[in-house]
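Changelog note: in this version the structure field was regenerated for every chain. One regenerated record is shown below for reference.
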Amino acid sequence: MKAYRSYRDLPPLAGLCTMEEAARPGLSVEECVRRLKRYHYVFKRLHQILTARITAEPIYELKMTFSLHAHYCAEHATALRQRVGEMREPPLGLEQVPHEALEICFDEILAASKTEELLMGLYEKALPALQAALQRHVADTNPLADAPSIRLCRFALLEIGDMLQFGRVAIEKLVSAEKRAVFKPWMQLLDDCFAVGGGLHGVDAPSDKPLERQFSAKPYKYDPVPKRDERFPDPYNMGVNAEVFLYDPKFPPPPKTLMMFYKRLREVDVPEMMASIIAETPDKPWGYYRDMTRQLWDEARHAMMGEVGFAQLGIDWPKHVMVNFTWSLALNTQLKPIERHAVLYFIEQGLMPKNGKRFEWEVGQQSGNPLSALFQDYDWADEVLHARIGRDWYLKDFSNSSEAVKYGDQCWSRVLIGWRSWRDEGLTEHRNWWPELYREACRRWKIQPDPEILAYSTTYEAVRADLKEVTGSG
């Protein structure tokens, strides 16, 4: 081996490794597949946990991050499924639980009673264990024979590193030393689960320590009611109808950009609703969960586009904009999962004509705000993808698209939005916050407010007196 030289000393073996590294023994196909199935199981469970906790998590930044990290996990689970399928004939056994102790561990994290425990379980136990298992796989396997698996591990490790970096900061900011002391016995239980399972990879000698469920002693139940933090002080507020303003030809593009930034930020309710569909729809092909999670993440990105739009203008959106959760609240609590998907599809089809996403992009182009034009360009592209996802996973259950749209319309018309009741119960005054937002924007633009624009006050009630209608979303 020492005498071997490649042509003109070029890197051998396509640059994967040295000849010596390729000549050493590594994992057999059977052992490689056994480990890959464990990683797949972990990514699937992490996806389940992150998705299930989006709706009821009040902190906006965590909602957005859980949306992204769920997308990461769905993508890596998909890649691992494909790799296992390349190495063994069906049945692949990908839906089997690799070890009862791992099941207990992830059941516990899913059922964590507080955000702080959830963060510690995810980012101090589960993800570090997965990171260590993937690193060991790269070290143990043959770099030439198992190059496809190593490639998947490297990509996964890259994004796990990003996830852990966020987790470290979040825990530092949100978990006190006192709370950490309280959580110590539960965190030990998670360590014990991995030990009993022979490590996440299943290579170590298993511990015989008995495991006693804590949070998961009572089966986890998904919470469909959206929660928001203190920056959303009036989540029932429906005092401003952005769509009416946006489509009124007498208003110019610059103030319409404010309404589009509001519409984007308001899309925080779409991940809250889509998470409920994913969490409450079992036994679908894995591709369904992957695609739906991609769309969920896109909708979270759209919300953050609105956030960035206001930040770019120097506008403190929690002070000037009331972002409601009435859409996700109504759909999650009044409709079945398939009915929520029907409403989502119905809305998506309405965004495809020229007066939909193309119109919003044109407004962005005319507004003089390059960021608005850019965001609407990508928002439009995303919605085309989402329409395709709807065709793949919703439309195929109907004989034609007209029936599918009609059913979505029927489901939407059944939803009761308690506009008056919320006001009468004192949950909101439906305050018209538009004038103060417009004044603040004009101050930033160094122009005088237009009296007609300033006076805009078309409320939801004035436009949709029938309480069976719902607000526009998506």
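Spot check on this record: The radius of gyration is 25 Å. The chain has 21 helices and no strands.
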